[in-house]
Amino acid sequence: MDGLGGRNRGGEGAAEISKACCREQEKAPKALSRREQNRLLRAVERGGKPRDVALIRLMLNSGLRVGEVVALKLEDIEIGERHGKVVVRSGK
Fold this sequence. Notes:
With 92 residues, the protein is mainly alpha-helical. 49% of the residues lie in helices and 7% in strands. It contains four helices and two strands, in the order H-H-H-H-E-E. It has helices spanning 14-26, 34-47, 50-62, 66-70, and strands spanning 77-79, 84-86.
């Protein structure tokens, strides 16, 4: 038994499966292509709330991660007529 449904898959031990999973997670996340970005934005604009559209636009245009955007507070954002400023207090 390997903890994955009770069967040993392909003769691999639990340690080998665990190592394989870790290797996959160590890879950097893949960035969305321009086409994928546009599809995501269109989908949110069609069915999402204005808040959702603003969050997706912020992430796509600034490169912020989900965790960084979630940690933002209102005082971290300054919006002017032609530009804005976002202060990220946590992140990489």
